[in-house]
Specification:
This protein is mainly α. The protein is built from four helices and no strands.
Length: about 110
């Protein structure tokens, strides 16, 4: 084992952190065993656990936020489409005005 390995920070994904927390909370694996096996400090594990519980509400509110975001995206798309149609109509009207002016002899 490289001596520098002890000084490198290991980065765990959110999924990995939840999996380790689950091992302790659901399967009752001792924290000391998890920390030793995965080479993490117990203080790091406890911080993950604290963050998990502090942000747990988000797990139940995300779907409604996602639906709201989808609805907002649909509304924006619909409004952009209406705006594009209006721009086309204005362009046609301007074109008609220019042609009418030229036909009537006015510049």
């Amino acid at each position: 084992m490289d001596p520098q390995d002890n000084h490198r920070r290991r980065h765990f994904t959110a999924e990995q952190k939840v999996a380790l927390l689950r091992l302790h909370l659901v399967e009752h694996v001792p924290i000391s065993d998890l920390c030793q096996k995965h080479q993490i400090q117990p203080s790091v594990f406890y911080r993950w656990q604290q963050e998990f519980f502090e942000n747990g509400v988000a797990a139940f509110t995300q779907p409604s936020r996602a639906r709201g975001a989808d609805k907002a995206h649909q509304t924006i798309a619909r409004l952009e489409e209406k705006l594009q149609v209006k721009d086309q109509v204005i362009a046609e009207i301007m074109e008609e005005m220019v042609r009418t002016k030229k036909e009537s002899g006015r510049s």
